[in-house]
Design a protein that fits this description.
Elements (H helix, E strand, L loop, with lengths): L2 H22 L5 E2 L1 H8 L3 H10 L5 E2 L10 E4 H10 L7 H8 L2
Antiparallel strand pairs: 1-3, 2-3
Helix pairs in contact: 2-3
Length: 101
């Protein structure tokens, strides 16, 4: 096998791996707290707390289980979190928790 054939073989293998990666990691417009938790290595509960306390910008979905609607986190917000971290806390629910003995 000459050098050119070896390079072509390696390029074919790299293209196959890239195609597989792209198919497995489809970019979405919105992510659930469970998906964000898996991406950033935190628990789903922690991500929902961040949504509730305003540490990440999130919206309530139109549909959900029971009376409470689930959260959705925009791809742009996920990118922002990965680059800059959590937003400062501004939630009243967190202030109440901190003020309790």
């Amino acid at each position: 096998m000459d050098r050119l054939e070896m390079i072509e073989t390696r390029l074919d293998r790299i293209e196959g791996l890239l195609e597989r990666l792209v198919s497995e990691r489809t970019i979405k417009d919105f992510y659930s707290p469970r998906e964000v938790a898996a991406i950033v290595g935190r628990s789903e509960f922690q991500v929902r707390e961040w949504c509730l306390t305003g540490r990440v910008s999130a919206e309530k979905m139109e549909s959900g289980h029971g009376r409470s609607r689930g959260w959705k986190i925009a791809r742009e917000e996920l990118d922002r979190y990965r680059s800059h971290g959590l937003l400062p806390c501004h939630s009243k629910s967190t202030e109440v928790r901190r003020s309790q003995p």
